[in-house]
Amino acid sequence: MTIPTTMTAMVTMGHGGLEKMELHHDWPVPKPAPGEVLVRVGACGLNNTDVNTRVGWYSKAVTQATSGDGFDTISDEDPSWSAAPIGFPRIQGADVCGQIVAVGAGVDAARIGQRIIGDTWLRDADDPGDINKTGYFGSERDGGFAQFTTMPSVNAIAITSTLTDAELATFSCSSSTAEGMLARAGVTAADTVLVPGASGGVGSALVQLAKRRGARVIALASEAKHADVLALGADRVLPRAPENLRAALGDEKITVLADVVGGDDWPTLLEVIERGGRLTTSGAIAGPIVALDLRTLYLRDLTFTGSTVIAPQVFQNLVRYIEAGEIRPTLAATYPLAELHAAQTAFILKKHTGNIVVVP
Q1: Using CA atoms, how far apart are residues 91 and 149, in angstroms rounded to an integer?
Q2: Got the DSSP string for 266-331?
Q3: Longest dimension (CA), the chain
Q4: In sequence order, what are the residues at sequence separation of 6 or more whose Cβ sits closer than 8 angstroms to the Cβ of residue 56?
Q5: Domain span holding position 160
Q6: What local confidence, expressed as pLDDT, does residue 160 receive?
Q7: Cα separations (Å) of 135 from 14, 141, 217, 265, 323?
Q8: Residue 147's pLDDT band (cuts 50, 70, 90)
Q9: What are phi and psi of 237, to 5 degrees?
């Protein structure tokens, strides 16, 4: 194909509200550096990281739940997931599905034409296992809220699938986050996993991927979404915040709490984990500051694991699951890229099940 010199892109100009994302129709098309590929974006999914970074929620100066409107208390020293400053202008968007249309020096030209989804974790080529040398696509470098994007060739994972671009764009962040959490907690068929926020992008992926491991899954979600969550494979779905969670669980023995919600209900969730059980967490949608009674942690022999940077093999495994049809997309809505403001507004309201995607 003939590659244009300019493109349409939604460009984030700084920390703040939706007004910080500006639509440009004359943004330069990037050129792939050595070892990189140029991807024509077919679709790009939305995720919490994009919102959190834009508003500066990762800053320790912020103590409340994620807001789409920005914060007055943000510190410029630690506004990103890595607790470091981020450069603007920045094209965000981590969850890319598209087609390679050009390659940089050192990349096999046979890759041109391949359909790919993007591995969101940017790693040091000489030391890919060092989590201190990682970046995130759409954060430490420009991402997919545009017609074209570049990425290291190793991050452009070829995929063979009958799913649409929009469907494939639902997997990268949500499913790799979920699989990373389950791997970090060592979830097996012997476990019963409790999943708060099970209708969200990561929550719905946790349900599917925990079931893929053979675990029993108890999900928490608003009642309007129970049928959707059951369709994902959950064994039981309870209200989002039962008045008495222990009573609602009955004889269920929760060995793993897989949580991306946090907030005021977090201590209640912790109390239902069996002695010797595990918490794995990768988010705090309802608020990052929680109350912990240390006696619950040590007297019940619990293990806590935080999960952000996934092991290199997790994404490769995820692609294999998708190609084998072992997990399915949860596409809630598709918006044009020009309507990203509306798409993120809907995403933040959390009235959907699964993932929201934009297409150029």
Answers
A1: 9
A2: HHHHHHTEEEEEEEEE---TTBS-----HHHHHHTT-EEEE--SPPHHHHHHHHHHHHTTSS---E
A3: 65
A4: 15, 16, 62, 70, 71, 74, 75, 79
A5: 6-170+329-359
A6: 98
A7: 19, 8, 32, 31, 26
A8: very high
A9: -125, 125
Q: 187 near 264, Cβ under 8 Å?
A: no
Please report, for the chain, how many H helices and E strands are present, in that order: 10, 17
Q: Is residue 236 part of a domain?
A: yes
CA dihedral 289, 13, 69, 151 (to 10 degrees): -60
Q: Are strands 135-136 and 148-152 parallel, antiparallel or unpaired?
A: unpaired
* Residue 302, pLDDT score: 98
Co-location of 102 and 241 in the same domain: no
Number of domains in the chain: 2
Inside any domain, residue 317: no
| Same-domain status, 159 and 16 | yes
**Cβ atoms of residues 166 and 359 within 8 Å:** yes
* pLDDT for 296: 96
- How far apart are the C-alpha atoms of 31 and 5, rounded to whole Å? 9
| pTM of the entire predicted model | 0.95
Nearest to 139 by CA among 61, 69, 58, 75: 58
Spatial separation of the C-alpha atoms in residues 164 and 3, rounded to whole Å: 23
Alpha-carbon distances, residue 281 vs 78, 124, 303, 311, 316 (angstroms)? 20, 25, 11, 16, 22
CA distances from 340 to 267, 270, 308, 333 (A): 35, 36, 25, 12
Listed residue (189, 181, 204, 212) closest to 314, CA to CA: 181
Q: How do 331-336 and 355-359 pair as beta strands?
A: parallel
**218 and 191 in one domain?**
yes
CA torsion through residues 246, 247, 250, 251, sign:
positive
* Helix segments in the chain, DSSP class H: 48-55, 165-168, 172-185, 201-212, 226-231, 245-249, 266-271, 294-299, 312-323, 340-349
Q: Looking up tokens 């994007």, which residue turns up?
A: 149
115 and 23 both lie in a single domain:
yes
Residues 104-129, mean pLDDT to the nearest whole number:
97
> In this model, does residue 67 exceed pLDDT 90?
no
pLDDT of residue 85: 86
Q: Which two tokens stand for residue 178?
A: 């979920």
pLDDT at 73 over 80: no
Establish if 180 belongs to a structural domain: yes
